[in-house]
Amino acid sequence: MNLRRLLILSLCLGFGWIAHAESSLTIAAAADLRFALDDILSHYRAQQPNARIEVIYGSSGKMTTQILNGAPYDIFFSADIAFPERLYREGFAVTEPNVYAIGRIVIWSRRQDASNMTLKDLLHPAIRRIAIAQPAHAPYGLRAQEALQSTGIWDEIQPKLVFAENIAHAAQMARSEAADVGIIALSLARFPALAEHGYALIDDALHNPLTQGFVVTRHGRDNPLADDFAIFMMEDKARKIMRQFGFVLPEDE
User: Which of 107, 176, 223, 228 has the smallest set of CB atoms within 10 Å of its CB?
Assistant: First the structure.
């Protein structure tokens, strides 16, 4: 996404539109953003009190399918930039995909101290159920699969795996002890309710990067709030929150 384009567009539109009560924005966001984006939106809503903003969290793959089928999302934050790239390539996005963060995966458990765990420790008989997001449509689940494959235990660990709808669901399964352990997003493990328990960061050399990107969709092309929020996500306040939740920003690499 060309940030200069967004800034120019915002200036050309003027600032009067933000006061209209009918202004609304619908955001589709990957589930790993649930807590970080909620925090960012609390600041954005403070400066846009008249805007009606709805966020739908889910797996990036399923949301891409929804957008291709006409879902009325104005802006899409994906956990894998490949999905926004497809939308842009096929004409369903009006801005080029913009990298907003790099994600990380961790081993997390409520039942036991996971802080010193390795992936091979998951083979221990005491660990019977391991939650990961569904690799078929959730980028964090796919990266978990890649890490397990790189470690050489993917086939052996199959009977223990339970597949969640998205990464937030995988975290919920581990938190509720429906699973003994979860391979979840660092951004979720950093949330205070989960941060009471330790986690082990998984070596990112074991999987492809979780390069996360966003686009303004074709549906949102005439919505000034979509461009305005895209700009807000690139500002220092939002970026500080992203770092607090464990995201690596492109300029930090």
Answer: 176
Split the chain (253 residues) into runs of 10 and give each run's mean pLDDT. Answer: 45 40 86 96 94 96 98 98 98 97 97 94 97 97 98 97 97 96 97 93 97 97 96 95 95 77
The pTM of the whole model exceeds 0.85: yes
Q: Which two tokens stand for residue 242?
A: 């992203």
- The DSSP secondary structure of 111-156, one letter per residue, reads SS--TT--GGGGGSTT---EEEE-TTT-HHHHHHHHHHHHHT-HHH
Q: What is the largest CA-CA distance in the chain?
A: 63
Q: In 3D, which of 253, 242, 174 has the Cα closest to residue 33?
A: 242
Are 105 and 143 in contact by the 8 Å Cβ rule? The answer is yes
Domains delineated in the chain: 3-102+209-252 (3.40.190.10), 105-201 (3.40.190.10)
